[in-house]
Amino acid sequence: MATTSSHPSSTPTPTPPSTTAHNPSFAFPPHYSFPPFFTLQPVASTRSSQLASWSSLIQSYCRHNRIFTISLIDALNTPLFNNTTLRRSLSLRDAKAILMYMASPEGGNRAEFISTSSKKGAKAGEEGEGGKAWIYWRRPEEWAAALEEWVERTGQKGTVLTLYEIVEGDVSRREEFYGMDLELLQKSLGVCVKRGKAQVFGSGGEGEGVKFF
């Protein structure tokens, strides 16, 4: 059972994994070694297949490396978009097109641009598309289900947990949401609240608490 005591102010704020993180054990799919894969093709059927393949690769890569957001500018120089063996890399324009596809219903809403405006998020094609984006290898509603299952499995219903305990605590160390960005956690908890499965306490940040029912 997790304790309900708050953490001292000296406790470090959880830091989301870097967009440049790369675990060499990740197994890239065969088409990653095919040079034309790094240029989106103009033929509609081929392009559609490419977009789906890139979406699958990005989700798998981010899941393997526990990456929750990427910056397009930074990611272009990582192994995800840059195959140094082939000396081929994805262009910024094509990378944007792939994320726009992922952020659309056609792409399964597997990405969301993080707007630089006052809005929390931008839809495909709106402001923020050249910067950072959430990569939803699990969408917020899927994370919500995972959190609810974890609470049930670990017998923590009715216990007030801090956000820090959820993403950095010993009990969650083996869970996929361990190390999750706090904003994504809050999005996911919001789904739990709407479902009537949880109640959130506090004013925000790592000391914010949540109780699951």
From TrEMBL:
Cellular location(s): Cytoplasm
Domain of life: Eukaryota
Region entry Disordered, spans: 1-24
Gene Ontology BP, a term: macroautophagy
KW Chloroplast (keyword) present: no
Biased composition annotated in UniProt, kind: Low complexity: 1-10
Gene Ontology CC: ESCRT II complex
Transmembrane feature ranges: none
Any GO MF annotation of the entry: protein homodimerization activity
UniProt keywords, alphabetically: Cytoplasm, Protein transport, Transport
UniProt-listed PANTHER family: VACUOLAR PROTEIN SORTING-ASSOCIATED PROTEIN VPS25 (PTHR13149), VACUOLAR PROTEIN-SORTING-ASSOCIATED PROTEIN 25 (PTHR13149:SF0)
Family label: Belongs to the VPS25 family.
Protein name, entry field: Vacuolar protein-sorting-associated protein 25
Species: Pyrenophora teres f. teres
Lineage: Eukaryota, Fungi, Dikarya, Ascomycota, Pezizomycotina
